[in-house]
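Tutorial, part two.
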Amino acid sequence: MTDVSQAVKAAAATLADAGVASPLHDAQSLAAWCLGISRMDLFLHGADEMPAEYSELIARRAGREPLQHIVGSAPVGHLDLLVGPGVFVPRPETELIGDWAVQRLRGMGVDKPCVVDLCTGSGTLAAYVASLVPSALVTAVEIDPQAMTWAQRNLDPLGVRTVLGDATAPDLLTNLNGRCDMVLSNPPYVPETTPVEPEVRADPHHAVFSGESGMDVITAMAPTIYRLLAPGGVTAIEHDDATADLVCAVLEQYGFEEIISHQDLGGRDRYVTAMKPAE
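Running the prediction step on this input gives:
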């Protein structure tokens, strides 16, 4: 018999040898998932017998299958989003935009704020807002039908409207022209030649990369955001840590005001916010 403590220690070594960035965390997470408990409760079960399937899970992770694909979900803030092959796995830092959006919406004094999430992927930002500001009327847009199936699994229970469409299209959501209080987006933004870990390669290519500079989608999406926003409406866009100045310049070009670059907890430029001028 191999107990939980021994199995996790051996698994962490296996994952480290495989080049996994967070071997102990992932070994513990898979152990907890296998046992049906939280990762924080593992220490209470150190002497328990580890189920045989644990070794299979570790082998999959050592092969660089994303942890989130193995367990079927990805945590972002208070959310645990359903994910799998065919949809971008949301990263924890997107919680920063979610928090900004919720705080801004709560301070608007609008009974039923209109919010659009462009390039929603698994529905992260739409779910974040809808779950914490339930009065908001949220629409989530995604271009990929396969990703949309994941978004709908996460968003349908929250009453979010989902639209299969192109965030850069001039005819997208024309019924909302000039009516949105907020437009959010975590679009594809990685420059095409950027080296990435194998786990990132498991995400759909078009959901990660966006041309040589990483700015193709953001640049093409800017007029859509401006068109949708009401005067005084605001936007937040996540971006590559090397393109904050480019994002700010694009938004300035399209007439946005109060353009601010925000950093993540590691001090890296992570997202930009801006406002459509009030009339």
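The chain has two domains: 4-63, 74-276. In part three we will examine how such features are distributed along the chain.
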